[in-house]
Amino acid sequence: MRIVRITREPIVLEPLIREVSRPDCGAVASFLGLVRDHAENRRTASIEYTAYEEMAEKELLKVVRTVADRFGAAAAIVVHRLGHLVVGEASLGVVVASGHRREAVHCMLEIIDEMKKTVPIWKKEFGPDGTTWV
Amino acid sequence: MRIEVRFFGRLSELVAPEPVHFDVEAGATATALRVLIAAGSPRAADALRTAMVAVNAEYSSDGTVLKDGDVVAFLPPVSGG
Q: Other CB atoms closer than 10 Å to residue B36's CB: what's the count?
């Protein structure tokens, strides 16, 4: 199973963990990327995420399939949220199920690293010091 | 031929937030489109220069020859995740 979702709804990990879990997997690695209150020397109050949605879904699925296949992961789900998010809200959720923990964790990390390079999603930071396209 | 062009990230503010249609010569490339747009939106020239190009929602190259009805997108460096 390799699933990606682009959503405007809050990301909740528990249902995703249940979705990837299977009896022959001893490990589920999970990650939530949250809006942080600072970036470099700028204070952040919120971030707006926008995307070329049709292409973002295709590119995200390419990344998940390529990386999950390379690590032999049994299942992987990535959810990216769009819209205006405040500090503490999750923009990204990743869950990976694998036989053992090392593959699950490394697969999850590499999915995140790779998706940050190619998936057409952009963020614009809002804060007391102004707005910045990242 | 008629090409639909979409702008994302900071380019959506510098050029246009909604798709724009351009009439170009048959055989035009993405490069030609990039030059045409920069001429009409000089303050977007720097951001256009560093943008990737996608044709019909697939990453493409500047040398790609466009066809009537193609959807071209200019994508600044991505920052998702």
A: 15
Q: In this complex, do A133 and B10 lie within 8 Å of one another by their Cβ atoms? A: yes
Contacts of A50 in chain B (CB under 8 A): 8-9, 12
- Alpha carbons A78 and A121: distance in angstroms, whole number: 14
Matching residue, tokens 């032999």: A72
Contact residues, chain A, for B54 at CB < 8 Å: 52, 55, 120
Contact residues on chain A for B79, CB-CB shorter than 8 A: 116, 121-123, 133-134
Among the listed residues A33, A4, A39, the one whose alpha carbon sits nearest the alpha carbon of residue A19: A4
Sheet with strand A83-86: strands edge to edge: A83-86, A46-51, A121-127, A130-133
Give percent of chain B with pLDDT exceeding 70.
100
Torsion of CA B51, A122, A74, A100, to 10 degrees: 110
Per residue in A1-49, pLDDT (tens digit) is 999 999 999 999 999 999 999 999 999 999 999 999 998 889 999 999 9
What pTM was estimated for this model as a whole?
0.95
Whose CA is closest to A85, among A30, A52, A37, A15? A37
Q: Is the ipTM of this complex over 0.90?
A: yes
Residue of A nearest to B19 (CA): A52
